[in-house]
Amino acid sequence: PSVPRHTNRLINEKSPYLLQHAHNPVDWYPWGQEAFDKAKKENKVIFLSVGYSTCHWCHVMEEESFKNKEIGEIMSKNFVCIKVDREERPDVDKVYMTFVQATSGGGGWPMSVWLTPDLKPFVGGTYFPPEDGVHRIGFRTVLLRIAEQWKENKDALLENSQKILEALLHRSEIRVQGQESPPPSKEVMATCFQQLSSSYDADYGGFSESPKFPTPVNLNFLFTYWALHRTTPEGARALQMALHTLKMMAHGGIHDHIGQGFHRYSTDQHWHVPHFEKMLYDQGQLAATYSRAFQISGDEFFADVAKDILLYVSRDLSDQSGGFYSAEDADSYPTTSSGEKREGAFCVWAAEEIRALLPDLVEGAAEGTTLGDVFMHHYGVKETGNVSPMKDPHQELKGKNVLIVRCSPELTAARFGLELGRLGVLLQEGRQRLSTARAQRPRPHLDTKMLAAWNGLMISGFAQAGAALAEPEYVSRAAQAAAFLQKHLFDPTSGRLLRSCYRGKDNTVEQSAVPIQGFLEDYVFVIQALFDLYEASLEQGWLEWALQLQHTQDKLFWDPKGFAYFSSEADDPSLLLRLKDDHDGAEPTANSVTVTNLLRAACYSGHTEWVAKAGQILAAYSERLQKIPIALPEMARATAVFHHTLTQVVICGDPQGEDTKEMLRCVHSVFSPNKVLMLADGDSAGFLHRQLPFLASLERKDGKATAYLCSNFTCSLPVTSPQELRGMLCP
Known about the structure:
CATH superfamily of the domain at 9-172: Glutaredoxin
Structural class: alpha+beta
Strand order of the largest sheet: 1-3-2-4-5
Shape: globular
Number of helices: 27
CATH topology of the domain at 9-172: Glutaredoxin
Strand content: 5-15%
CATH architecture of the domain at 9-172: 3-Layer(aba) Sandwich
Helix content: 40-55%
Number of strands: 21
C-alpha cells in the first residue's frame, strides 16, 4: 500500500473504527478535553460523527465525504470534528441519538450532529450523501449552511440549543411516580404475550415482516411464559412460536451454513438475505437461547445450532488472552485482486463455483447426479442466483446465492433416493469443501476491540450451553474469559470495571492512554455472566466477585430519587444527560437484566435490600410495562421472576462424588426460569457458608448427595433421587 497522504490524531487511538478514519483528509479529534477546549477557544461549532466498524452506511459516508479533500477542508476549517466509536462510548451515543430521534423522527448510524462549543446539540441527522440530490440535501451544503448560520445567528442557535436540552431532559426521564409498587406480573406477562402473538409471523417465525432481527429477548420471554403456563393453550402457543422461530432462523441465510454463527439481521421476511456482519452480542445470546430450546424440547437440532455458534466464536472471535472480539464486518474484497469491497462477498456463491467444487457422482442416486446437484437442491441454489433484485439495491449480489435450507432432509433424501444418514454425510462433505474454498477469499475486517459487556453476554452463552448440553469444555472456555476480564478489564484497587481493551501489536492486550470506565451495561452483563458461570462450574470465587461488583454498581449508578440505574456515572462533565434505557432490543437493556441479577444476588447473600431494589426498578418502569411490555420483554419476564420468588436449589454433597454430579446433571437438564443453584460442600469456612448460615442446618441424607428446594430460606424435605428432584423442578 502507498504511504497515506494524510494522517490525523485518530492514529493514536486503539479503536479499530477510529483507526479506519486516521488517514481521512479531516482534522479529526477523539471525544475528549483537547477537542472541547479548541471549540471553546476558537468559538467553533463541533461536528460529531458517531458510528461503528461494521456499519455499512458508515463506510459509505466515509468513502463519499470524509475521504473527499474539498469536503475535508470545509469540515476542518469551520468545525472542530470529533469521531466516536459508539461501542466504546454508548453514553455519548445515547445522549445525541435521543436528540436526533426527537428532532428528526428517525435515527441510526452514521449519526451526524452539530453541537455548540459547550456540547449542546442544535442540528442532527444520520447519513448524508456528499452532494445535493432530488430528494436529499448534500453534506457539503449542510456544512456550509451551518457555518453560515453560526456566523449570522449564533445567539438564536445557542438559545434554541438550551430549550432543546430542557425538553430532552423532561422527555427522557424514567422515574417512580409517588409511592408506586411493581406492576401486577400476571397482567404484564399476559399483555406482552398478546402483543408478541399478534406481531408473530406464523409462516416464517419472528415478529415483523422485514427486516427481521433474532431478538433473543422475545424468545426468552416466551420460554418463561410457557414454563408458567405449561398446561394452557397460550403456554403451548408461546413455546411453539419460540421453537418455530429458532428453527426457521437456523435454516435461513441469516445463519452461516459454511462458516457457522449468525449474521446480524435479515432484510426479508424469510430470514434469507442478511446484512452480513456478525456481532458478538448476538452469538452470546443465541448460544444461550438455543441451549434453552434444547433443554425444553430435547431436540438435538437445537443443541447442534448452539455448538455451531460456539465453534464460530472459538475459532474466529477469540483472542489468545481468553477475551472475545466484538464483530466481523459485512463488506470484503471478492478476490485478492479486487479494488473495492462488496457486502457479503465472503459468504455468497455462484452456482458454477459450487458445481466446480462438488463434481463427484453420487452412488445410489439417479444416473449422472453429482454431489453439486444434491447440495444445490438442499440449499436453494439457483443458476442465476437466488437473491431477489428487490433485496439487492446496489446489485452487489447479482448472480450470487445465499445458502438457505429450503426443504427437510427427508424431502431431499427422497428426491435423490438416498438414505437420511447418507445424505447427512454428503451435505457435510459439501460444506467442508466450500469452507476450504472460502478460506482462500480475503476475509472481512475483524473488530478486535474487546468490550466487558459483550464478553459478559458471551461468557453466559458458553456457561449456559456447557451446563445444558453437559459439555465441560464450554464451561472452561467461559472461565478462561472471566479470568481475562479479571486481569484486563477490572481494577482491583478501585473495584471497578473498565469498558474496553484492544488487541495490540504482537497479539498483546493493550489499553488506551485514558482507559474508559465501565458503564452500567458492563457491570450488569458481567454480573449475569458470573452467576451463570458459578451455576455451571460451582467455583465460589465467581460468586464472590459478582456480589462485589453488584455493590459497586449500586454505588456508581443507582438513582435514589427516581429509582432504577442510570446508564452512566455522575462525574462526567462532558455528558449533558444521565439517561436510563427503556428498550430491550438486539441486546436487553441493563435495567431489565439487573432485576434478575438482584434477585439472584439476594439468594446467594441473604441481602434482602437487593430484592427491594428489584421491586423499585419495576415500579419506575411500571407505566411502560403495563402499556407496551413488548418494548421490554426481558423486564416483563423479570416481573414474573420477582412475583414468583426464586427457588434456591441446594445440593449437599461432595463436588467430586458421582452422586453429586448426577444430581447436578438433573438440575442442568431442566428449564426452570425461577431457580438458583448452589452447592453446599460442607466447607464451613467457604464463601457461601459464610454468606448463608442456614446452609449449615442442611445435611446429607444417609451420606448421599441430597437436594433441598428452599424459598425465602425455608427448605423442603430432603430428596436423594434425581428422578424425584426432576419432578419437583417441573411441577
